[in-house]
Amino acid sequence: MTLQQLKCFLVMAEVLHYTKAANQLYISQPSLSYAISELEKELGVPFFERKGNHTLMTKYGESFLPYVKQIFSTLNEAKAHLYEMLDASTGKVNLGYIYSISFDFVPRMLELFYADQGNSQITFEFFQGLHYTLIEKLKSGSVDLLLSANPDDKTIEGVPVFKQELFVVVPENHRLANNDCVSLADVRNEPLISLSKTSDIRNHLVKCFERIGAKPIIAGEVAECIGMSALVRANLGIAITPLSPTFEGGKLKVLRFHEDERETMHRDIHLLWMKDHQLEPSVKRFRDFIIDRSKSA
Prior knowledge:
With 297 residues, the chain is an alpha/beta fold. The protein has three domains: 3-85, Arc Repressor Mutant, subunit A (Orthogonal Bundle), CATH 1.10.10.10; 90-163 and 268-296, Periplasmic binding protein-like II (D-Maltodextrin-Binding Protein, domain 2, 3-Layer(aba) Sandwich), CATH 3.40.190; 167-264, D-Maltodextrin-Binding Protein, domain 2 (3-Layer(aba) Sandwich), CATH 3.40.190.10. It has nine helices and 13 strands. The protein has helices spanning 3-15, 18-25, 29-43, 59-85, 105-114, 131-140, 200-211, 225-233, 281-296, and strands at 48-51, 54-57, 90-98, 121-129, 145-148, 156-165, 167-171, 181-182, 191-195, 217-222, 239-241, 252-257, 266-274. The protein has a five-stranded mixed sheet with strand order 4-3-5-13-6, with helices on both faces. Helix 7 (200-211) links the parallel strand 9 (191-195) and strand 10. Helix 2 (18-25) crosses helix 3. The longest helix is centred in the first third of the chain and has 27 residues, at 59-85. It is globular.
């Protein structure tokens, strides 16, 4: 009997669906079936049975379930105790964040964090990427903390840390280039250079356009802001995006939305972590630092 087999049993008992359970465990369905089969074989009783299109737990499974829950509860308590014994002033933080905050927010927070000499022995490994890719890294455990939009996922906890304003970026010869501010209606028929569908900002823009009864006209998709700025400079479309240094310099004009639209033309950036994952003390220390800074901002 292994912990992996018990974990497979526990998840299966919660969802009673082999495909869903396998997805939650990040294993194949045959691997899940084999693990449960081996556990049943060792203990000599069936834990699940099929009735029509449904999977049900047997009386043996129902009897076994509270003991398995207690095993994992005790194991988590033991891990928590060991983590508390560690020194929070050392360790590594695996920090993920979306591209658009890599130029300002992340470097500023790290500079302030390291201004405290008590944090000097904490190291970081950084993971930049698009929203949905980073969410998968968070769920798999590759990332401890993630700065991105809220995924509305019950397995993930988080707090909002700041509002990220969106701007309109146009070529310098564009009809709107001499304006100081624009409305979303002003650009509803403009070809748009957008991040790909794996970026949260793409879905956010779709919702913004829906509010004015329109759909964005996607002229091109890119993976990050450098590609976006290059295509806007080439007069292939405009961009609606957070600010970054890639939009500075010649041939581009950055416009704000009218003040009455700025409340909607932004997105909330959250600090995220897995709800059921025990964070190491150094990770907790950085998490609490970011939360405290956001409250005082």
